[in-house]
Structure formats: structure tokens, C-alpha cells
Design a protein that fits this description.
- With about 325 residues, this protein is of the alpha/beta class.
- The protein has a single domain, classed as 3-Layer(aba) Sandwich (Rossmann fold).
- About 40% of the residues lie in helices and about 20% in strands.
- The protein is built from 10 helices and 8 strands.
- Strands 1-2-4-3-5-6-7-8 form an 8-stranded mixed β-sheet, with helices on both faces.
- Strand 1 and strand 2 form a beta hairpin.
- Helix 4 packs across helix 5.
- The longest helix is centred in the N-terminal third of the chain and has 18 residues.
- The model has no long low-confidence stretch (mean pLDDT about 95).
């Protein structure tokens, strides 16, 4: 395998400052992970100057709970801007819609779109299907109410990393199956696609690269305590019918426990006739795009590709 760059090896050494016992309850370790995400967002993300507006709002779900949204609007304009719905990662148990604010601002500025980050309910307090249901309701609300925040509800793409990549893929399935709002593109960054956890990279990259096999299992068990749910396509999109889905960008990393299931998803999309761009980074680890955007060439390259793909889809640019 390709060697990990020294900058990333140095970063892996810093991660020990935020290490936690994987056997502790996920509600407790969530605090540590969220602090780490905030640290990365502050010190290593690309920062956008002269950003117009960042606002919070929420709506009441069909179940009666509130679903918060964070709205990133890059410029003041009378034009209705297209929308990228961003779904954060964190194993379905960690993370927050505030954790990647600089990434969201950068996408908004570079694509000239509004980015909406959704705060879905987390496991283990709220296991499957709480998260995909929240995201689907957010998609519906955004589509119907886009005018209220300057967005174009007819031009929506979705995306996210890790668990957020899973939920983005699932959202495309739900929108197709439930006659939901049309999604123009899905951006899947090192997505979790198969909750059976049977792929070889889970073993070859089990330890030493931030995301570990044990942590993946803990996340899966918290999110999907019912074994039967683990083969539900809305939990494991790799096992679903992928025909008729929107074009996709899938990014995978060689030292990621989720690498093989991401590549398998690319193969399934291709066989299903879905237009897919796949970029594999053999010397990168899980979440590398977010970790070092300002200093790691591979991170910047992947962000540039994300911007290009979202721009082409939301602004109808033919390649």
C-alpha cells in the first residue's frame, strides 16, 4: 500500500490528545468527538472571507420533535440559489450540524449555493430509523420552504461524510421510493454502505488509522440494535435497488475501514446505470477531506472535486 504522508502521520499523533475509551457509553464519548471536530474545523479547515450569513432555524417534525437546521448563505442576492443539503458524519452517534461550519461555508462560496446542515437525532438514544426519517423530513421541508431563506427548492443536491454519506445515499433511495423532492446529485465521502460489516478493509485497517474496527462495531450496534434492520436498504444502501438514483461522487481512502464497502457501492451504482465519479486516495485515512483541508494536498484536491461535481449538478453545467 502507499505510505501515509508525514503531515497526516503527524496529525494522527495529535489525535491521541482526543482519545477515549471505546468501551465507554457513546453519549459520553460524543463530547470528546465533538470537541475534536470543532478543533479541526477551527484550525485546519479552509476559511471563507466576507461570508454573508449563517443562521439557525428549525421546524416541527411529523413526530412532534424539533429538527434544527443551519443555513449558510454565501452572498446577498435577489436570485434564488440552489441548495446543497449537508448531513454530518459521526457514526450515527456523534457529531453535530455545527461541527463542519467552515467546510459548509467553503462549499457555499465556491459553488454559489446555499448549504443547509441538518441536526438529525443520534443513537443510541434514537436508533434507526430516526436519523433517515429526520433527514427525509428535512429534505421535504427545505424543498417546500426554500423561498423563505432565498433558496431554489427545485435544485437540491445532498452529501455528507461517513455516516452522513450513508444517510445521503439513503435519502436518495427514500426520495425515489416515496415520491419525494428530486435530488440532483449525491456526494458520498467515504460512506458506510453495509451494516453487516463483512468487507476485508474492516480487518486490514482495523486499528491505527483513527476510525477503528471496534468503534465501527460500537456505532453499528448503537444505531442498529435490531439485527434484522442491518439488511434494510435504508440502513445498508449497498443492499438496495439502486436504479434511477441521481448522479454520484464517491470518495474512498485506502487506509479506511470503510474503504471496501465504498468501492462496492461504486460498483453497484455502475451496474445499476447510475452516473458515478469515483476518486480513490490510496494513502489517505477515513475523514481525510475534513481533517487537513488547509495543509494536505489530497484534502484540497478532494474538496476541489466536490466543488466541481456539486457546481455541475446544481448549475446544470454539461461536462
Amino acid at each position: 500500500m502507499n505510505p501515509i504522508p508525514w503531515k497526516l502521520r503527524f496529525f494522527l499523533s495529535l489525535i491521541h490528545l482526543f482519545a477515549f475509551n471505546p468501551n465507554e457509553p457513546l453519549q459520553k464519548t460524543r463530547v470528546v468527538t465533538n470537541r475534536f471536530m470543532s478543533f479541526v474545523n477551527r484550525w485546519f479547515a479552509i476559511k471563507s472571507k466576507s461570508f454573508y450569513n449563517e443562521a439557525e432555524l428549525s421546524f416541527t417534525s411529523n413526530g412532534g420533535h424539533r429538527i434544527p437546521l443551519r443555513i449558510f448563505t454565501p452572498v446577498k442576492t435577489s436570485d434564488k440559489l440552489p441548495i446543497w443539503l449537508y448531513i454530518h458524519g459521526g457514526g450515527f452517534a456523534h457529531g453535530t450540524y455545527r461541527s463542519r461550519s467552515n467546510f459548509c461555508k467553503h462549499i457555499a462560496m465556491q459553488v454559489n449555493c446555499i448549504v443547509v446542515s441538518v441536526e438529525y437525532r443520534l443513537a443510541p438514544e434514537h436508533p434507526f430509523p430516526a436519523a433517515p426519517n429526520d433527514c427525509f423530513e428535512a429534505l421535504q421541508w427545505i424543498s417546500y420552504n426554500a423561498d423563505s431563506f432565498g433558496g431554489d427548492g427545485s435544485r437540491i443536491a445532498v452529501g455528507g461524510e461517513s455516516a452522513g454519506g450513508n444517510l445521503s445515499a439513503v435519502l436518495c433511495l427514500m426520495a425515489r421510493d416515496k415520491d419525494g423532492p428530486k435530488i440532483l446529485h449525491q456526494t458520498l465521502l467515504y460512506p458506510a454502505t453495509d451494516a453487516r460489516l463483512q468487507h476485508a478493509s474492516l480487518e486490514t485497517n482495523a486499528t491505527g488509522y483513527m476510525l477503528t474496527k471496534d468503534l465501527v462495531k460500537n456505532f453499528r450496534n448503537a444505531y442498529l440494535p435490531e439485527v434484522a434492520d442491518r439488511v434494510n436498504p435504508y440502513a445498508s444502501p449497498l443492499l438496495g435497488d439502486l436504479h434511477g438514483l441521481p448522479p454520484a461522487l464517491v470518495i474512498t481512502a485506502g487506509y479506511d475501514p470503510l474503504c471496501d464497502e465504498g468501492i462496492a457501492y461504486v460498483q453497484r451504482l455502475n451496474k445499476s446505470g447510475v452516473q458515478v465519479t469515483h476518486r480513490h486516495y490510496p494513502n489517505m485515512i477515513h475523514d481525510f477531506t475534513m481533517l487537513m483541508m488547509r495543509v494536505l494536498p489530497e484534502s484540497k484536491d478532494s474538496v476541489d472535486l466536490i466543488v466541481k461535481e456539486i457546481t455541475n449538478s446544481l448549475h446544470n453545467i454539461k461536462c
